[in-house]
Amino acid sequence: MKNKNIIGFITVLDPRDKTSWSGTHYRMLKALEKEFETVVVLGPIPNSRVISGIVNKIDVLARFFLNKKYNKEQNILKSWYHSKYINKRLKNKKIDLLFAPASSTALAFLNTKIPICTSDDATVDLLIDYHPGYFNFFKFSLIESKYIERKAASKVTYFTFSSEWASKDAIKKYKLKKKDVFITKYGANVDYKPQKRNILSRDYNSTIKILFLARHWETKGGPLVFEALKILLEKGYDVTLTVCGCTPAINHPKVNIIPFLNKNIVTQEKSFKELLYQTHLMFVPTRADCYGIAFCEASAFGIPVITTDTGGVSAVVENNYNGFTLPLDSNAEDYANKIQILLNNLSLINNMVINSMHKFEAELNWDSWGKKMKEILLSMSN
Fold first, then answer.
1. Quick one: CA dihedral 240, 241, 247, 249, positive or negative?
2. Which positions, given as ranges, span the membrane (predicted)?
3. Which whole-number Å values give the CA distances from 378 to 112, 115, 300, in the listed order?
4. What pTM was estimated for this model as a whole?
5. Are residues 247 and 259 in contact, defined by beta-carbon separation less than 8 angstroms?
6. Beta bridge partners of 188
7. What is the C-alpha to C-alpha distance for residues 216 and 121, in angstroms, rounded to an integer?
8. Does residue 96 share a domain with residue 31?
9. CA distance to 44, 50, 159, 290, 306, per residue, from 12 (Å)
10. Per the CB 3.0–4.6 Å rule, which of 40, 188, 216, 276 could disulfide with 297?
11. What does the pLDDT look like over 196-243, one tens digit per residue?
């Protein structure tokens, strides 16, 4: 039965866009709409040309004079504007509880007494000098970014994170009470439950189709994937690679490149579904990742994952259970050897396929997330 509490859903981006934040905002919105009668969408926050112009100029000056960057997403100007916009949206609205995923800039200067619950996959402290977009900020920008997130945290009742990696850092950096922090794993960005009969009918005795699913070739470990593929081919294994989401400058008869599949377009979503049904292994040795929605999608389709033990990845891929997570300093030969172990042991692959489906059904789906989030949100109103 749906709960009658009215939920305000705060996002900077458009939560109705299936590509926004890897589809996470969209899935969260749909999951909450299953649990509550009324979910009021308060985003997206429209861009301000004036503020964007000022922020861009600061970034240009920082690059010219300091050879450094400015955090154009987390800064006082943009946060003030975001909070002001949400304050206006809340005016004269009856809302019982607020849910704000990845929206620290909208919360920092928010003026409300409504209980707030957040959801994030990392803290800004974890992102700095780790995530590709968070390198080389000049000192004031670093201070400002951390200030925004801490100020936002002071407005929050409950915090949810997608991994223990993120939750532990938040407790330490924000000095949060453990009872106010929860781990709620995100689900796969799919509208359907993949058919088991299609998954279990894959043939592992013919050509093994490996999938690299990512928008960024370099930062997601694409060069390692290509080198490992060549090693496997030299050893005589019948393998192919499909790259989906980016367009690396490689030309090889065993490599197929699909620039991008937009899940907002029905025909392309169907193509995405067919691609995953045909895939035997997902291979994304990411250099930095806070979670890994693509890995959730792999589990949904019973696809073992070969990746890296970094950031929050282990929340999705358990080493030797639904895939392999190798150390960050592993080379192409190391990855090729792991894949070779799977190719030489069909019973191990089959076990990982079953384990992947179990992990999706138990944890990595949005229905489970929605039910847990409902409990957390309602406990704020008690």
1. negative
2. none
3. 18, 10, 29
4. 0.95
5. yes
6. none
7. 19
8. yes
9. 5, 17, 18, 19, 33
10. 188
11. 999 999 999 999 999 999 999 999 999 999 999 999 999 999 999 999
